Amino acid sequence: MKPLIPGPTYHEMLHPETLPEPFRARAAAALTNELDPANLFNITWRKPDGGIRYVVLPKELTGVEANILVLTARWFPSGSHKVGPAYSTLMEGELAGEISPGANVIIGPSTGNFGIGTAYVAHLKGYSAVVIMPEQMSAERYQRIRQYGGELDLTPGSESDVILVLERTEAYKKDPRNKILAQFELLPNYRFHRYVTGRSALEAAQAHGNGHVAAFVAAPGSAGTLAAGDEIKARFPDAVVCALEPKECSTLFNCGRGTHRIEGIGDKMVTLIHNVLTTDYVELIHDDDCVMGLDLLECRQPLVERTLGISDGSLGGLRGLFGISGICNILGAVRMARFLGLGPDDNVVTIATDGFDRYPSVLANLAERAGTPDDAGLNSRFEKIFRGGGDAAEILDVRPREQKDRLFGYKEEVWTAFHYSRPYLESMKSQSFWDAEYDRVGAIDAALARARHE
Ligand SMILES: Cc1ncc(COP(=O)(O)O)c(C=O)c1O
C-alpha cells in the first residue's frame, strides 16, 4: 500500500541527512511553509546543520555542578516533539494497511500537544482529524488545533481528567472508520522516543563532562518520552531514570489523584506504554513552582540575571524555549543532580516538550490570581523555586520489587478496564517485551522504504 504522502523512517528522523536527496531538498524548502507536507521530513531533533537541538543551562541558574542538558522540542513541526509519536503511529497504521486517507478519520486523544501533532500530521497527509481533550487546557492549544483543520471534542476538566478522554475515545471505536492514535497505549510512541529521542540525547551528552548520561529526567504524560531512558540505560546501565509528577497529583508516588497546573503531564494513571521496569525514581514538583519558574525565566530575565550576577546575557538565549512542563523537567533535573550528589563530569539530560508560545495565557492567569510581587518578592520566589525542593521526602526510590508490583498493579487497574488482557499486561513485566517492541524498528523502516518505492 502506498501512503498518500510519504514520510521518514525512524532512522531518517534520527539522521535526516540519510534521506534520499529529493526528500532532503523538499524538506529544506518546506521550512518556510508550515503546511507543506514535506515538513514530515523535518520531524527530528536536529538543526539544519546536523547538530542536536539542546541547551546546557548556565550553572549560575542551576546552582549545581553537574551539566544539565535540555533537549528543546519547540522547533519540531507543529511546535512540539509530540508530533513524532503522532506521525509514527499513523505511519505504522498505514503500513499495516489499517489506515488510509479518504477511508478513515484520525482520532487523537490528548491533553494538547499530541492533539496538535495529530491534527497537523493528519492535515499534511490528507485526513480529517478529531482531537479529544479536556476543556480547561491553554487557549493557545485549541487555537493551534483549529488552525490545522482539526475538530475538537472537549471533555470536562483539565490535565488530570485524562481518564474521561479515554472513556470518550471508547465511543469513537464503535465506528470502524475512526482510527485512534492511542498515544497512551500504542508502541510507536515508545519506539519513536526510545530510538529517536534516546539516541539524540546520547549524542548531545557526548560533548559534555565524561560524555555519559548519569540521569535522564522527564515528567510523563503518556510516558512516551520516558522511553528515551530505556535507550540511555541500554548504553549506560548505571544511568538512573527519574519520572516527575506534580505534587498535587502524585499518582506514581503514592496513588495521589488531584488537579494541577502542569499541562501535558500527571494524568492520574500508569499508562500502558510506561515501562515501569526502567523507572528508578519518582520525584514530586509543586505545580506553581513551574508556572512561576516560567514567569521568572521568560518575563523577569534582567532581574534574575542581576541577582545571579550573570553579565553575558546567557539567560536571554533561553527565552521562548520552555513551557511549564519544561520548567518542571528542569527543576526535576537540578534537584535530582543535587540529590545524587553529581559533579562536573556528570550529565543530566531532560526535555522541553514545547516552548513558551503555548503559555502566554497561563502567565496572564498567574498575574491575575497571584499578582506581581516587587523585586524582593520575585527574588525570594527564585530562591524557593530554583534552590529549594528535592528533599528526600519528595523523591521515591521505585527500584525495589514491591514498588514495581505497586506500579504494575496501578497499570492493571486502569487497562483491564479498557479491555487489555491479563496475559498481555503480564508480558509487560519483562524487559524482553520492550526490547522486542523496540527491535521492530528495523523491519518497520524497511517496509516504509519499500512502500515509498512502490
Ligand atoms: C507540554 C507537555 N509536556 C510533557 C508531556 C509528556 O510527554 P509524554 O507524553 O511523552 O510523556 C506532554 C505530552 O503531551 C506535553 O504536552
List keywords for this structure.
four-stranded parallel beta sheet, 3 domains, 11 strands, seven-stranded mixed beta sheet, 454 residues, alpha/beta, binds pyridoxal-5'-phosphate, Rossmann fold
Written description of the protein model:
There is one protein chain. Helix 8 packs across helix 9. Helix 5 links the parallel strand 3 and strand 4. The chain has 454 residues and is α/β, with parallel strands linked by helices. The protein has three domains: 30 residues, no CATH class; 233 residues, Rossmann fold, CATH 3.40.50; 100 residues, Rossmann fold (3-Layer(aba) Sandwich). The protein starts with 9 loop residues before the first helix and ends with a helix. The radius of gyration is 21 Å and the shape is globular. Bound molecules: pyridoxal-5'-phosphate. Pyridoxal-5'-phosphate binds next to helix 5.
Major pleated sheet: 7 strands, mixed
Radius of gyration: 21 Å
**Domains (count):** 3
The CATH class designation of the largest domain is Alpha Beta
Order of helices and strands: HHEHEHEHEHEHEHEHEHEHHHEHHEHHHH
Ligands, deduplicated: pyridoxal-5'-phosphate
**Helix amount, in percent?**
40-55%
Average pLDDT, rounded to a whole number, is 96
Uncertain spans, ≥5 residues at pLDDT below 50? Answer: none
Q: Strand-residue fraction?
A: 5-15%
Q: Give the name of the CATH architecture of the largest domain.
A: 3-Layer(aba) Sandwich
Query: What's the β-strand tally?
Result: 11
Taking strands numbered 1, 2, ... along the chain, how are they ordered across the largest sheet?
1-2-10-7-8-9-11
